[in-house]
Structure formats: C-alpha cells, structure tokens
Write a structure and sequence with these properties.
With 215 residues, the protein is an all-alpha fold. It has six helices and no strands. It is elongated, with a radius of gyration of 19 Å. The two termini are 36 Å apart.
C-alpha cells in the first residue's frame, strides 16, 4: 500500500515534467510559426494543446485522490496541493503558446509582426523555450538553486516586452494601430509565459523547503 502511495506521488512529478516538455514544444513551434508565417505549424500548436489539458486534468484528479484517501502531511501534502497549482500554471503556459499560434492563423497569409521586430520576438521565443526547460529540470530534480536561472530568463522576457512596448509607442512607428495592438498582445503573451514559469519555480521551493509561497 505504501509503495502504491509513493508511486502516486512520483506520478505527479512525472506528469508535471511531461507537461513542461509539451509546453516547450508548443512555445518553440508557436514562435517558429510566428516568425515564418507558418499556418500549418500554428495549427499543430493549437491542436496539440489538448494533450497538455488532459495532463492537467490527470494531475488534478490524482492530487485530489491522494488528498482524500492517503491524508498526506508535510512535504507530501505540499506536493499534492502544489501539484494542482503547478499543473494549472503549465496548462496556462500552453494556452499562451496557443494564443500566439492563433494570432498567426488570424493574420495569415499576412505576417503577424513587422520584419524589423522579428529578431526581438526570436529572442523572446528562445528565452521562453529555455525558461520552460529549466522548469522541467527544477520539477524533476527539485533543485531549488535553479530558481535564479529561471528568474534571469523571466527578466529577459520582461525587458524585451518593455522594448516592444516602447517601439509601438515611438514616433517612428509606421505600421498603424492594428499592428501595434498585435505586437503588444504577442509580447504580453511571452511576458505572461515567463511569469507562470516563475510561479512554478516558487511552488517547488515551497514544496522542498516549506517556506511560505509568495507571489
């Protein structure tokens, strides 16, 4: 019975790691679709979100089952409760990748971003890919020292978001209001992606150390 309980706890972590892998694929492909105006790839991201959603439900149901039947305490309880929150954050990160892909689909066959901003969005996509990969390592290893790495990637996303916001407000902006709105929204999706990654990292710190979770 105890072995089954341990396996259930391990399953939470394993499913969360798989979620990070799927989210990593989603944000990588969404960025590629954005930069290449690739409708087929954008549609693949949209359809692939179902697998992330299903894992979110699986983790949530397992956590509730363990809480109800096993009465976990201490670290185990924090893992069970935190697992629900982490899965929800990862599911939301998948949704943000989908939002980017849907923007590509909405504007196709026209580009979603001005050509001169492609390098900035490429850098955002790279930071987003790295931050979710780091989250996967944190969840799998429970190595809280990796939190600084995650914060650095989040800082990069925040900086690039501010740069893009400044660009669309500049007197030199010549692409009109619609393009300004598109760029601002897309940039915000990446910025929020990073915020959710930081949330997951803080949940892991809470699970491992017992320190109160802080936003």
């Amino acid at each position: 019975m105890r072995e089954d309980y341990s396996n259930q706890l391990d399953s939470i972590n394993q499913d969360l790691v798989v979620m990070t892998q799927l989210v990593g694929i989603a944000i990588t492909e969404a960025t590629q679709a954005l930069l290449e105006d690739n409708l087929e790839l954008a549609q693949s991201v949209i359809e692939g979100d179902a697998a992330i959603n299903e894992l979110n439900v699986t983790v949530e149901e397992l956590c509730f089952k363990i809480a109800a039947l096993q009465a976990p305490v201490a670290t185990d309880l924090r893992l069970v409760m935190g697992g629900i929150k982490m899965a929800a954050s990862l599911e939301r990160m998948g949704d943000l990748a989908v939002h980017i892909a849907k923007q590509v689909r909405l504007r196709y066959p026209n580009p979603s971003i001005p050509a001169e901003l492609a390098a900035t969005f490429r850098e955002m996509g790279e930071a987003a890919k790295k931050i979710v990969a780091a989250i996967g390592r944190v969840v799998e290893s429970q190595d809280t020292s990796l939190a600084d790495e995650i914060k650095n990637y989040d800082d990069t996303l925040d900086r690039l978001h501010r740069e893009l916001f400044t660009a669309v407000l500049s007197d030199d902006w010549s692409h009109g209001v619609e393009a300004a709105i598109d760029v601002t929204l897309l940039s915000r999706f990446y910025e929020r992606f990073g915020d959710h990654a930081v949330t997951v990292a803080r949940r892991v710190i809470h699970i491992v150390t017992g320190e109160p979770y802080t936003k």
